[in-house]
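ARCHIVE CARD
Drawer: 12
Card no.: 0347
Subject: one protein chain, sequence and derived structure
Cross-reference: see card 0346
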Amino acid sequence: MTAESKHAFVTAIEKDYGRKLRRYVANRMRHAAADVPDLVQEIFLRLLRIQDHDAIRSPRAYLFTVASHVLHQHALKKTATPESIAIADVVSELEDVPDSDPELQAQLDQRFERFSQALKQISPAAYATLVLHRGHGLPLEQISKHLGVSYSMTKKYLAKALRYYEQQLAQGKETL
């Protein structure tokens, strides 16, 4: 797909649904109205990244699905505590530490171990979902197939794991 056809697709979407999209985002962001333009821009940028626009059967439904995902990710970022950290960040830090700094390596190893111990207190399925999704970047659809459960159950597992970890952070039991 050419850049011109991508721009034409996004322009048509904006023309047809732009006003409704801005209203949809604004209604959900009443507490942070200043973020609305940035979120709408992110939604359209994601549409530009799509390789095959012809495969989208319902552009309106797809647009609002992307909007929901962007809003959800924004909410997660806003509610994350400063102490919270993604598994992928810890893993990448561990991989980037030079072998010549054993003190830093030991600190990161301890940090990762505390993180793992806190998460092992939840169910194995929730733990696996969190590790596969946040640590390895697998989409929830793929994780649900891998675990042999429904997509909605996979979302519940992820929510349970995140909620548990946030509780641990709030109680001061886990400091990463």
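Annotation on reverse: Helices lie at 3-28, 36-48, 59-79, 87-96, 102-119, 124-135, 140-147, 151-170. The two ends are 44 Å apart (CA to CA).
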